[in-house]
Structure to design on (495 residues):
């Protein structure tokens, strides 16, 4: 049964609603250990966040779309880098990702891992509104609200509550969630919810407002989004939206934000083309069933009729994605050309989403040589793009340029050591070259980067037994085996 994030995980350790999925055993939950009894250091906080993300990435609700993820990362990290004090005590990079869920919500994990529901992305009407939500979550992280709350809790009984709450994965979709867990035979369901303190929310507002201002966004986006959610809640339902339940808005808070906005000169912020394109993509990522695609197509057709260039571009982009999903590459190409005609070739070249779509269409059409050239040109325009790097490697592989693909991927893996996708791609290339030992070693690296150390160790064993394993390979295998076995032992001690 398909699982999804049925309830938002709140960006404060003890403010989470949790229903554990059937597949997640109690022993898989990260342990805070002794650090939670005193104070969670920034390094420990980040490590905890990484462990949680390892579980999140394996859930079907996690959106594994490189382009959408990169858009959120660029927007979020632009906000983080806008001020010298934004990071607070954290020195690590922030991570931004999307979750497949129609509800309006966003959340943060310890260490700077920030998620956005696809439903919230669709609900935002401007890039400043989306940036205001991310800024608020960054505020919670930079002020270390999770660590600060845990440091105040001295009773051991609160530690497992906090740690299990951080595991955010929701119960199986459909029917009663607790019932689904029981029927699954696990009999394991934990629900704990403690509301944010007013001080924490006000502090996140204050910090988020400053971040939004420093980054050059329209600060009215913060008040307009919150006010619209409150209005929608009063109009359509007696129950507040998930975002308002987990980030309770009071009249005092809204008045405080509004007062801050009024003290600042009005600053208009032009929405990027990719903001509108990513809203179209989010609609399809949220639900790609045929009935949902038909509904989305009708929405995109209406956008094309609107007369607004950005909405027209988003409409044709959405229809191109639908055509590609249906394997109608000719229609996808026609729609892409319509987008370029609407926004102009220069603007299209500066859009990561459109560059990526052009490559995907070529690969789907078996125009591999063209895809290689297109990807190489796109990378020249976006040299730090992870999405385009993956596409370029895929294009090289599909065009059977295995040597060039391996060379490119090895270089990328050296620069981006925590990217499991690169290692999986490298394993595929080595497999095509008949290099069995290197293939298993690359797969082992990929598994380790997702926290699957048992599978990684199995791959090392296969690599050691491969006929083409070299003395140097054996040395690397031995070193990795010692390292990963030590991690597994330490993990078992914590449980």
């Amino acid at each position: 049964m398909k699982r999804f994030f049925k309830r938002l995980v709140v960006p404060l350790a003890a403010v989470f609603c949790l229903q554990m999925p059937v597949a997640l055993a109690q022993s898989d939950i990260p342990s805070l250990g002794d650090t939670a009894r005193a104070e969670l250091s920034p390094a420990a906080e980040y490590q905890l966040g990484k462990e949680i993300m390892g579980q999140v990435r394996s859930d079907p609700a996690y959106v594994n779309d490189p382009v959408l993820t990169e858009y959120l990362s660029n927007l979020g990290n632009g906000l983080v880098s806008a001020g010298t004090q934004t990071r607070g005590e954290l020195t690590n990079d922030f991570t931004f990702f999307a979750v497949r869920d129609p509800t309006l919500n966003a959340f943060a994990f310890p260490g700077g891992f920030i998620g956005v529901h696809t439903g919230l992305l669709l609900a935002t009407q401007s890039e400043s509104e989306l940036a205001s939500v991310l800024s608020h979550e960054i505020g919670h992280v930079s002020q270390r609200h999770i660590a600060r709350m845990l440091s105040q809790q001295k009773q051991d009984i609160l530690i497992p509550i906090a740690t299990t709450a951080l595991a955010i994965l929701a119960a199986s979709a459909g029917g009663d969630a607790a019932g689904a867990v029981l029927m699954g035979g696990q009999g394991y369901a934990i629900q704990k919810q403690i509301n944010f303190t007013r001080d924490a929310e006000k502090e996140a507002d204050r910090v988020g407002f400053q971040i939004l201002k420093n980054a050059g966004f329209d600060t009215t986006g913060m008040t307009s989004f919150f006010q619209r959610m409150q209005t929608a809640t009063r109009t359509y339902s007696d129950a507040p939206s998930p975002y308002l339940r987990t980030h309770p808005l009071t009249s005092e808070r809204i008045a405080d934000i509004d007062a801050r906005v009024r003290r600042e000169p009005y600053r208009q912020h032009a929405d990027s083309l990719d903001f509108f394109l990513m809203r179209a993509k989010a609609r399809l990522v949220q639900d790609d069933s045929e009935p949902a695609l038909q509904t989305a197509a009708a929405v995109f057709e209406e956008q094309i009729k609107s007369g607004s260039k950005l909405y027209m571009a988003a409409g044709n982009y959405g229809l191109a994605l639908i055509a590609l999903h249906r394997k109608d590459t000719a229609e996808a190409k026609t729609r892409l050309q319509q987008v370029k005609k609407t926004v102009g070739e220069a603007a299209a070249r500066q859009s990561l989403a459109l560059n990526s779509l052009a490559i995907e269409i070529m690969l789907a059409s078996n125009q591999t040589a063209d895809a290689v050239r297109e990807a190489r040109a796109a990378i020249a325009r976006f040299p730090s793009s992870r999405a385009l790097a993956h596409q370029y490697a895929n294009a090289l592989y599909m065009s059977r340029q295995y040597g060039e693909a391996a060379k490119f991927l090895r270089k990328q893996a050296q620069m981006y050591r925590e990217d499991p996708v690169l290692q999986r791609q490298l394993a595929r290339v080595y497999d095509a070259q008949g290099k069995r030992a290197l293939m298993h070693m690359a797969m082992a690296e990929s598994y380790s980067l997702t926290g699957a150390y048992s599978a990684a160790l199995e791959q090392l064993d296969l690599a050691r037994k491969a006929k083409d394993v070299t003395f140097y390979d054996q040395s690397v295998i031995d070193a990795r085996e010692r390292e990963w076995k030590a991690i597994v032992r330490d993990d078992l001690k914590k449980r």
Summary: The longest strand covers residues 95-99. The longest helix spans residues 471-494.
